[in-house]
Amino acid sequence: MAWLLFRERQCSECAVACRVQKAPFKSMTEAAAKLGLATKLTYGFGAVAYGIKDNGFAYFLLLFYGTVVGLEPALAGAALLIALVFDSLSDPVVGYWSDNTRSRWGRRHPFMYAAAIPVALCYSLLWQPPDWSDGALFLYLVVLAILIRTLITFYETPSSALMPELTADYDERTTIQAWRSFFGWAGGAGMAVFMYAFLLVPSETYPVGALNRDGYETYGVISGGVILVAILVSALGTHSRIGALKAPPPRARKGLKGVFEEVIETLRDKSFFALFISTIASAVATGLTAALTFIMLTYFWAFSSVEVFYWTLLVVVSALMGLLIAPWASKRWGKKGAALRLGVLAFTVQPMPVLFRLLGWMPDNGDPLLFPILATVNTIDLGLIIAMQAILYSMLADLVEHTEVRTGRRSEGVFFSALTFIRKTNQGIGAFAAGLILQVIAFPDGAAPSEVPAASLTQLGTLLVPSQWALWGVMLAALAFYRLDRAQHQSNLVAIQTRAAESKN
Prior knowledge:
The protein is mainly α. The protein has helices at residues 2-21, 26-33, 37-45, 47-69, 73-99, 109-126, 134-166, 170-199, 213-237, 256-267, 270-300, 305-333, 335-349, 352-358, 370-407, 412-440, 454-479, 486-504.
């Protein structure tokens, strides 16, 4: 009976959607949706820049400065935290600025072009620090980290805001964002694989490859070049569409108070608030998991460096899965339905291997079956998470028109900067939470895998599993309050077109 009621509701929603699609806006949306594969690829490829930066900062930078360069680890951590604070504050400013920019290159492209060379140069210099004292080296790291994070914001926020401008089509937005997610994850993982395979290989000089300073310097030069190419490919690949993008709103003289009042009004939407809370929980969970990833792989599961290498390589496979799953799931269940289904499946499964180990249901460390089992589960699970993330950003894009109907303003930059701001700050909270867990269990510093007490590893798993489930549960519960569906989106498009037609008459 319940199934029949569900099918009846689905049919009803489809009927509504079909009636709306027959409205006068149809031709406009169809024209907007006709993006060629080249546009999708070039636009999406730009996410490689953010993926490389994010991966480098998350996994290598603290290791490089704290272990290889010799900067006091506490100072290195403090420098990165300072940069994170500055970075978070820059997001809403850049978002609002790009929304209101006027130029012959539109609202977004001037920022994208301006960021390309400076961020590539700064990222390269970050991995070539001079032989200075700890104090001077601390300032060097602070300045460059702030510059890089701010400059990448100048590219990433306007670039993300460009997505809802490229097409108004409900499904096409998910496809475009899926390409961005694919290139972002694959770019970050691909550069990490390149480092382990070619730059940080153990040698006679460096028996521990991760301590090879020259390898990091080479990485800086190569990754800086890739960042430059990625940004330029994305900007140039979408340049021809500038004329079809939305124009900025009429000029208005506003003080600082007026600007913030406008931002708050734009964000005062129940569906956005649902995404807001959902993103907070997701970002904390992601930060927590990322901060403990290599500890779990090295100590909890006792994987070798070769196995960790293949684990990282499989991220590319996960990204490809996300690229394929996101558009299919969005069309099959709608964006909210797809995100909830994928999220429930992914986040139920994610902590299961750790839980099964605590229950004694997993193969012992060193068992040849252990790595294939865990790698398969993680690859599939991460693919589902990447697909869900792509759909969430597509849901955010649909709120642009929803808010435009209510306020009369298009604020793509404000919307995307808000979630970027949340993601950055709360990933830091997740990393902090991971540090607290390690402190609570008295995890030993610099210990070999065999030297960590079994009781500490049991405590680690016992604290990690409920923490993950609690955070993902909050995320999914908040997401359930998102109200915008396909039919409402089409209605919003019709309302905007009708308003535009009336203003011309």
